[in-house]
Amino acid sequence: MNLTISGFSEPLVLGSDHVSVLEIHNRRLFARVCQSLMSELDGEALEPYTLWDGDDQRSSRNYFLFICNPFELPWSERALIGEVLERIEDMFLHEDEARQRIETAGRSLSEQVASLGLRLQSDYAFEVQWDMRKYLKAFDFCVEVDPADELLDNLTKFLKFASDAAFRKQLVFVNLKNFLVEKEIQEFYRQAVFFELNVLLLENASDDSAFEYERKMCIDMDFLQS
């Protein structure tokens, strides 16, 4: 996938084989580009842009998942957790041994609850059969996150989460490098490529470091592209 922004001489290549970085030193232009991509307005955006898959132009609607604050990662994002729930439900339906154990445990739980109802005056019973998806939602099945974990640990866990969800759209991090040292940036890149995720970093600060797995386009203060 190529991202072409009006006024830029070259497109930014997006993909899962590298982490793409768009580094814009001019703060006003940086803000306008971020706002434009978040708007999903394509050619009607503040800074018009287009997405190309080969020779085919694609809409950016629902294509970008923005992470502006790495300390508040979107663990409850429907496009991610919904896919994970569906994957678990599919495993439940297709793995007979696991399904039988779970259904037996579910019947046992229902029987125990029903036995309590026998102490009451009227008649009580469950109207809905045990259902994996409803069980996962009822008990808030989600990624286990420890607030004491280091940022890189949580970022790695988030990338694994996106991989579990088979997320093939674009993860966009804003100024992520501000919070990581070089060694951590390289590890973040390595994990993103390992899990074959499409990751784009939008950065405002100048960074002369050379990273493996990084594909960078730089727009300096004079709007010159390199």
In short:
The chain has 226 residues and is α/β, with parallel strands linked by helices.
List the helices and strands and how they pair.
Layout: E1 2-5, E2 12-13, E3 19-24, H1 27-39, E4 49-53, E5 56-58, E6 64-67, H2 78-94, H3 96-117, H4 132-138, H5 151-164, E7 170-174, H6 182-194, E8 198-203, E9 214-219
Parallel strand pairs: 3-8, 3-9, 6-7, 7-8
Antiparallel strand pairs: 1-2, 1-4, 4-5
Low-confidence stretches: none
**What is the 3D form?**
elongated
The end-to-end span amounts to 19 Å
Query: How big is the Rg?
Result: 23 Å
Overall pLDDT confidence: 93
What string gives the helices and strands in order? Answer: EEEHEEEHHHHEHEE
User: Order of strands across the biggest sheet?
Assistant: 6-7-8-3-9
Content of β-strand: 15-25%
Describe this structure in words.
The protein has 226 residues and is of the alpha/beta class. It is built from 6 helices and 9 strands, in the order E-E-E-H-E-E-E-H-H-H-H-E-H-E-E. It has helices spanning 27-39, 78-94, 96-117, 132-138, 151-164, 182-194; strands at 2-5, 12-13, 19-24, 49-53, 56-58, 64-67, 170-174, 198-203, 214-219. Strands 6-7-8-3-9 form a 5-stranded parallel β-sheet. The protein has a 4-stranded antiparallel β-sheet with strand order 2-1-4-5, with helices on one face. Helix 6 links the parallel strand 7 (170-174) and strand 8 (198-203). The longest helix has 22 residues, at 96-117. The chain starts with a strand and ends in a 7-residue tail after the last strand. The mean pLDDT is 93.
